[in-house]
Amino acid sequence: MAAIIATAELRTSGLRATYRTAGDRGVLIEYGQQFPVDLGVNFFVHAAARHLNTHPVRGILEVVPGLRSLLVYYDPTVIEQAGVVAELEACHQDIPAPASLVLPSRRLRLPIAFDDSTSREAVNRYRISTRPEAPNVVDGNNIDYIVACNGLPDRESFYARILETEWWNAFTGFYPGLPSLLPLDPRSEVSAPKYNPARGWTPEGAVALGGPCLVIYPIESSGSYQIFGRTLPISALTRRPRAHRIDPILIYPCDRISFFRTGEAELIELRRQVFEGRYDYDIEPGEYAVAEHFTTAKDERVAAETERRRAARQAAHELVKIP
């Protein structure tokens, strides 16, 4: 099988689609360009996934949305690869332009304790056991490195970026239930290089930054994102009342997350309530009109401030050491 099956320019969105072979039972569709990260592309990916789920095609078994890609698994005894591509092309024609999309999207509010002791413990273990001279470890934390990477004056400026916007779950992966979040307000964009090599231990509930994505670790695991705080558990691998009533995974693709600041002692108490089954997560069902994002991003003042911050971030990246 050829690595690249076909390419196409999508009429409604203007995106370029590249169809790739993904083994003998999968087709991977990549949309747009790799850089820069474009939320408009991600909105289209989720619209395509939703369309295929609501208009099932015989032989297509599963669709998995990524940041700018869609992985389609199929049964080759029922439908051939060429048939899958034809169905995908038909699907793309039915999806309107990104600015016209409305996607199912819940809103979740989560507490966050910045620079908590458990996050510091993970960083300190890495310093002792793996790389004592790592440039991203400054005074036992990753936060000061993130601040430097983004050309910010201080930690509070970084914390404000996290708290000021809603974060869009662009895709879930790497670990089951791990959300990769991007800011809906482009002025809140932040980025940082990842660890090299990775940490051996990351606490469950850690909130961290790698590249342009924020993640929340659903389980204790290794990890390479720069840790800056901790929140509540977002997975329930053992059944507990009230925490996750139906699904063991708390955060779905297309969910919007907002953080509110809390102290470490208060967070510990809220986590205790989760584990005891006494905590109700703040979840609001709903939809997201993608036009809201484009209206904000294209506002002249917002666009000017976004470009100023991107330029400052680029200049700062030139000065920091890469792990």
From TrEMBL:
The keyword Transferase does not apply. Keywords: ATP-binding, Hydrolase, Nucleotide-binding. Residues 17-251 form the Carboxyltransferase domain. It comes from the Bacteria. InterPro entries: CT_C_D (IPR003833), Cyclophilin-like_dom_sf (IPR029000), PxpB (IPR010016). Pfam families: CT_C_D. One of its GO terms (molecular function) is hydrolase activity. The keyword Nucleotide-binding applies. This is Allophanate hydrolase subunit 1.
